[in-house]
């Protein structure tokens, strides 16, 4: 029995080795012979490449589409051939005027990524760029391919995924729905969404073509997919330091808005209080201040006394940023972002001085012996001249 078992193991091992040898032989043929210059298929390669390169000469949608598909299938055979023509493929992807050609390239690039991941992966940022293509069909096909690769773990989740998040507010309803479905599925995969959320935010903030309202809409949707308390606590620690990285009012407002989206427990509020030094100066911005006041108000409505106490502590820290009067009332108020000067203020002084000049002329020209009427007139002139300083003192006292 032992001899028969040993013989069976040896035959199995020999069979596995034979399979490996056959596989190596096939791979070697594909790599070095199938599309080489000496093979039948290889002799057609220069013709295919020339048609792809000279799109102005062979300017036909069907010809271009057929040529690029043939080229991509050749590339799937040999890593050497693939490496040689990657630049050409992505140049065509950017410059071609035919949407069908772009879609075909995206579809076959997903196959190439599975076949030769080390060769294709450095080019994936160029694939993400097609999510901004003017053609809806190209955007939809690109999103579908990228989402499929990411969910199958064929493509690493990187900061470029912010382009997919931007599709949540795309003008095309189909793409908006696809984007939301993708991120819902991604949120179910371990910590994928949690890990990339700060990077998504940073990339979206740097996108000048995305307005603030759409940015907030995207972040509100993504934060709504984070349902673990531990992740919420850590997001506080990851977002607070972002205040130190910028002086831009817009970015500070958006960071504060994201912090206001977090569902706070005790640990989360403690992390926010401990990070007070990061956002202390940013509180002088009215929108940032309002976001933190919202966090405080939510904490005060909690049924847990511990959270209420922490919310009170946070409120006290926020209040400490501003001056207080003798009654303990807040005097300083957050500042709005700088705004252009109003033209009305430029004409206040001439209006105040004009009556004074007229009063002086009247006084010099007046030669009346009635001292009482002259005294009354002087009093009126004095009051008129001092009117502006009195208004300024009233405003100062209100602000104090």
Quick summary:
This is Condensin complex subunit 1 C-terminal domain-containing protein. One of its GO terms (molecular function) is histone binding. The chain is built from 20 helices and no strands.
- SSE run: HHHHHHHHHHHHHHHHHHHH
In terms of structural class, how would the helical and strand content be classed?
A: mainly alpha
Multimeric state of these chains? single chain
User: How far is the N terminus from the C terminus?
Assistant: 100 Å
Beta content: under 5%
Rg value: 35 Å
Q: Biggest β-sheet: count, sense, barrel?
A: none
How helix-rich are the residues, as a percent range? over 70%
Mean pLDDT: 82
What does the overall shape look like?
A: elongated
Number of helical regions: 20
Poorly predicted ranges: 338-400
Number of beta strands: 0
Summarize this structure as a short list of keywords or feature phrases.
400 residues, mitosis, 0% strand, mainly alpha, 20 helices, nucleus, CND1/NCAPD3, single chain, elongated
